[in-house]
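sorry for the late reply, my laptop died twice this morning and i had to redo everyting from scratch. anyway the thing you sent over, i finally got around to it. pasting the sequence first so we're on the same page, its 259 residues, then the predicted structure underneath. double check i copied it right bc i was rushing
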Amino acid sequence: MQKLASAMCLALLTWACGGGNTSSNVKSPGDEKSSKTKVLEAGADVLQDKSPVRKLNIYLDGFHFYNGHLQGQMEAHHYCSKLNEDLTQCVIYDGNGDSAKIMGVEYIISETLFKTLPADEKKLWHSHRYEVKSGTLIGPGLPGVAEHELMEQIVTTYGKTWHTWHTDQDIALPFGNPALMMGFTRDGLLKPELVNDRDKRFGISTREKRSQRADIQAPPKLPGADSWETGEIIQLPALTNHKHEHVNQNSFKGEKPQR
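ok and here's the structure:
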C-alpha cells in the first residue's frame, strides 16, 4: 500500500488539528483593526488568489533552541508545503490561534540533498532523527497511522531554521537580526515543562508517541549537521541593545555544548 494515508490525511485533516488551543506569546502594540480594515480584509479574502498559502497543508509542532544558547528553548508551530519529495518549506508561528505571530521559516531537505551541500552550509542545518524518534515532533490532529507515515518521511531529513521574531522572550516587535535555530539531538536537553505543557494542550503523550515510533528506521545522521554539538556557534551579530540583547551573539559566548 503506497503512502496514501498520509497524503489524504494531510490534505484533509491537518487544518482540523486543534484550532486555537495555543495562544501567541505576546500582545504587540498598535491600534485595534478599524471597520475599514476589516471590510478590506473580507474583500481580499474573497477576491484575491492565495495559491502559495493554500499549499501550507502540513502542520507540525516541535521545539527549537538558539544555536549557542541551549537554554533558549521554545515551542514552534510549523505550517509547511512540500515543493517536491526532497524539499519542504515551512512558516513558523508561536501559536495556532488567530493572534499567532510568524516567528520565522524552516527549510527541510532530504538526506540526498543534504549530501550535496558544501561543508560550511551543512553547519546551518539540524537533523530530525531524534525529534521524530523521541516523539517530540508531532503532526497535531492526524490519525496515528498517517502521523507515523509522515514521521517515516521526516526522520532522515535536515532542517535550516531562522527565527525573525523572538516572541519566546516576550519581545512585542520583531527587533534585531534573525537567529539560527537548532533541533534537539538526545535526551536530557529539552525542558520537560515545555513538553508537558504542549502535551496537555493537545491531549497527547510524547512518551506514547516515542514508543509507537520504535519501529521507524533511522540511520545515523550525516556528518556536518548539528554543528552546535562540536562547539560551532553561528549567529548574526547584534544590531542594537534592545530587550532582545540576550539572544544575540554576545549571549552565546562561553556556553558549552552539554554531553
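The longest strand covers residues 69-84.
thats about all i looked at so far, will dig more tmrw
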